[in-house]
Specification:
The protein is about 35% helix and about 20% strand. It is an alpha+beta fold and about 325 residues long. The relative contact order is 0.11.
């Protein structure tokens, strides 16, 4: 199966192109929307070609999710730790956005390899911002200790007005996703996909993967959560994360995979739906070809029809001519 990339490909393309054409000083103003309703806006002026303004708009949080200053908990600290002096947070952000940062292109490292690595990291700013609360919980799991303020049910936004839940413990972290889909066909396909997803975890080659469970009703860990937050027409998926799943470089991959799990499922559901439509079209085309081959030849059909034809006769008796049929 295809995993979603942590960096925004279009943002990386814009940044790379800007670095190559920095001397030209071209004005830049681009807006686009990524999956799960995450909106970007990047700007640059001719007067200051080295300065880029990047704004990020996150999905609207549901009532059970708390934002601090319009951002998830720990997002500001995560940005400062990830980018240092290269990115400067502007307060307040641009209207309609949760975050606006100023990127100084002159402070990029001269080494080409390090420069590309930093641009890739900047293009992954969504992962840094949106995954900050989950990263904080999983870091506590690595140290085998849970802070008192994290030893409770945590609600994290991942889609507009939708959240998933994290239950931190000293030896494990349980992540629970209420799966919701608007289209009835997507709901059926997603339910089947998730059930097969759980069964695949039991194969011999995936013994080190996090345990995965699916249920049609809310797990016990979500007791006390509002009914609106637990409305899920495709069931509930639970992952149990142990310290071995977040050690070293595994932490970033685990944070991103969990933060975008719903988008991952939606992507494969749409791919499955498109594949079935393609198969049905091919089947219809093969049936039409079979019917065309079964049609009789035109000459044979003309003989069987026995169509009569009449020739026009012209008679001349010296006084004139007349036609008869």
């Amino acid at each position: 199966m295809i995993l979603l990339q942590s960096h925004c490909r279009y943002l990386l393309q814009v940044l790379s192109t800007r670095v190559l054409n920095l001397e030209k000083g071209v004005e830049l103003d681009c807006q686009w929307v990524e999956f799960d309703d995450v909106r970007y806006h990047i700007q640059a002026t001719v007067k200051n070609p080295n300065i880029l303004l990047l704004s990020l708009s996150l999905p609207t949080p549901p009532p059970e999710t708390v934002f601090f200053g319009g951002l998830p908990q720990g997002a500001i600290e995560a940005i400062k730790a990830a980018y240092g002096v290269v990115l400067q947070i502007l307060d307040p952000p641009k209207d309609g956005f949760n975050l606006t940062v100023k990127l100084n292109m002159s402070k990029l490292p001269p080494d080409e390899e390090h420069k590309q690595a930093l641009l890739l990291k900047i293009a992954s700013i969504r992962e840094v911002v949106q995954g900050a609360p989950l990263r904080a919980v999983l870091k506590q799991l690595v140290s085998r200790g849970v802070k008192s303020d994290l030893n409770r049910l945590v609600s994290l936004v991942h889609r507009p007005n939708e959240s998933f839940f994290v239950v931190p413990k000293a030896d494990k972290v349980t992540v629970i996703f209420p799966m919701r889909f608007k289209d009835s066909v997507d709901t059926v396909l997603a339910t089947s996909f998730l059930q097969e997803f759980v069964e695949a975890r039991r194969t011999a080659g995936l013994t080190n993967a996090p345990p995965c469970l699916w249920s049609s009703s809310p797990p016990q860990e979500l007791e006390g959560v509002s009914d609106e937050a637990l409305s899920a027409n495709a069931g509930f998926v639970s992952f149990v994360i142990f310290p071995r799943h977040v050690e070293g470089k595994k932490l970033d991959r685990t944070v991103w995979s969990l933060s975008t799990f719903h988008a991952y499922v939606s992507y494969h559901v749409k791919c499955s739906e498109g594949f079935m439509h393609t198969r049905m079209r091919r089947r219809v085309e093969s049936l039409i070809e079979a019917l065309d081959r079964a049609k009789p030849d035109s000459e044979k059909a003309k003989k069987n029809a026995q169509v009569r034809s009449f020739k026009r006769l012209s008679i001349n008796d010296g006084r004139g001519s007349f036609n008869s049929r």
